[in-house]
# Entry
Amino acid sequence: MKIAVVFILIIFFSYFALFFVLGLLKDYEWSDMDWNNSGTVSVFEVMNATDVGVRDSGKGCKEYYSLKDGLAIREVCPNQ
# Structure
């Protein structure tokens, strides 16, 4: 029984760590990962970065969009 619990915990934390590392591997600035504009970047916001892409908006800004449906999440301009 104890081995099963340990095995499930290892799988859970490995899954969590995988998404965290994948979020860190994105080519975003740390401050740009603050998806809810709270002023701080949480672990879950880093994990959500795995589902976000970046493209040029045509105005010299970076537009972050959802990979699922292509809708814009936020736009970051260098003069902001």
